Amino acid sequence: MTSPATGERRVALAAVAGAHGINGEVRLKLFADSLANLTKGARLFVGGEQRTLVAIKPADKSPIARFEGVADRSAAEALRGSLVEIDRDVLPPLEDGEYYHADLIGMACFDETGAAHGRVVGVENFGAGDLLEIERDDGKRALIPFRDPIATMDDGRILLDPDFLA
User: Fold this and answer.
1) What sign does the CA torsion over 101, 104, 106, 109 have?
2) Residue 11 pairs with which residues in a beta bridge?
3) By CB distance 3.0 to 4.6 Å, which of 39, 76, 128, 151 could disulfide with 19?
4) Around 37, how many Cα atoms within 13 Å sit in the side-chain half-sphere?
């Protein structure tokens, strides 16, 4: 996602699932593997508004967080559904072959002959690996596995086998 005010790219690390208790704490649905990128004192954006993470703790199903300026249950409930984002440039650098889902969004898709087949508009993972949601020029969308030989990242674009586009 890009901030409308600054043009900076942001990466969603979690979403607010709802309030927890009466003191302004919220339950989070994590999009990352761990709480490592959500650390106390981090500059985050919750629902597009900059907030400081005051506390975070693991819980059975979803972590519990407290943000500065959220002091009661109704303020916490008002954040339900909000994305918890961080500026892309503060995330750790990646090794070869690694990627952030946010970096794939908007990538153009081509086959081995160079023919265009649309753009990546979403990335899903239901447990068996990443799936790319490709939107073709005609507006139709398809989910394809993001693995060789079906789809690979090649020099800032996606190289795919068009037979997998339904």
Assistant:
1) negative
2) 86
3) 76
4) 21
Q: Do residues 133 and 152 make contact, with C-beta atoms less than 8 angstroms apart?
A: no
Which CA distances in Å does 28 have to 1, 13, 41, 160? 19, 10, 17, 34
Angle, alpha carbons 99-149-132 (nearest 5°) = 45
Q: What is this structure's pTM?
A: 0.69
Say if strands 83-87 and 10-20 run parallel, antiparallel, or are unpaired. antiparallel
42 conformational bin, left if phi > 0, alpha if psi -120 to 50, beta if neither: beta
pLDDT digits (tens, 9 = 90+) for 130-147: 999 999 989 999 999 999
Give the position of tokens 């596995």. 145
Q: How distant is the alpha carbon of residue 36 from its chain centre? A: 15
